[in-house]
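#structure-requests
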Amino acid sequence: MILKTGLLFILTAIAEILGCFLPYLWLRKGGPAWLLVPAAASLALFVWLLTLHPAASGRVYAAYGGVYVATALGWLRFVDSVALTTRDWAGAAVALCGMAIIVSGWGRSG
């Protein structure tokens, strides 16, 4: 379940980042307007993927934030070709630890 949830979080983050990156290319980098079509589809996929997570929505959004941070830094490194700093890595580790704490409490009350 943890692996499935982790992969689902990563797919959700990629869909969100892509849905925001494509309009950025259009608005700031002079890309073609047709980029808005796959951007809208990607954001719709993002919303649908959020509904597949196995916990209450508030917990899902809170835990998802940690994975989003790490995925966004991966995007920065591999798509934007920006070298990550030690602080970037440390921030991602802290965010993922927070996500792990939240996920470990799923299904428990109190």
